[in-house]
Amino acid sequence: MPKGQAHAIYIHGIGRQREGFAAYAHKTMSASLKLRGITLHGQEVVWAPILDRHQDAMLKDVGGRGSKNSPAQQLAIGTLADALSYGNQRDAVLSLVDNAMVRLRSDSVSIFAHSLGCLVALDWLRSRPIVNGTLTSFGANVRLFYLGGEFVCPNQLKAENRWRNLFYPKDMLGWPIKGWQDQVDDLELSKPFWSISTLVPALSHNDYWHDKKLWSTTLPAGFR
Questions:
Q1: What is the pTM for the complete model shown?
Q2: Which helix (H) or strand (E) holds 9?
Q3: Any residues with CB less than 8 A from the CB of 86 and at least 6 apart, and which?
Q4: What is the sign, positive or negative, of the torsion defined by CA atoms of 166, 159, 143, 121?
Q5: Cα Rg for the chain, rounded, in angstroms?
Q6: CA nearest to 11, candidates 107, 145, 118, 130
Q7: Is 5-217 a CATH 1.10.10 domain?
Q8: Which of 51, 139, 167, 219 has the largest count of CB atoms under 10 Å?
Q9: What is the mean pLDDT of each run of 10 residues along the chain (224 residues)?
Q10: Where are the domains of the chain?
């Protein structure tokens, strides 16, 4: 990695995500690194549209057969389907990560992944062993996808300080990883007691990308 340069890839989780989802995170980290004379180059991996069109077709079909698309139904199909259908579109999603790496023009990258995006990041690192990668996960529920099965950790993350996991204690879909994977460095994040997501825990899972305290103190591996 050239001196004074850092490279990051941002991978979102479930839902109808669009370009710009990591803009705040990238801007905030860039400002912190700039004070050290380091330029941060970043690329977003927006994989949601790959599954959105299939979900839209299903909603249209279900509605056309007389079952009204209620908000609960739209939420279930629009979010749960991402987790259930990712395996069917895995290659297409991972190719988007490849494209992001091509644009970065680097063989070393720090990956920042939210929720299901952590599973995407792990799959990509395992299938791209020549890449020098580190992972910062947040709101990660990846352990759920390996219950009763074997987890093969990417070689890039087997050493200490290569995988860091951030989580809110009240996040119902993001949990600690250390203990399941001992090399992971878990960090519990705090929020002000008056925060709406503290009062309504279900909301905290979506707070990570816009948490000022998180991104003002989080830096890519190697620059901490």
A1: 0.90
A2: strand 5-11
A3: 51, 93, 116, 119, 120
A4: positive
A5: 18
A6: 118
A7: no
A8: 139
A9: 82 92 96 91 95 78 70 71 85 97 94 97 96 95 92 94 92 92 92 66 85 85 60
A10: 5-217
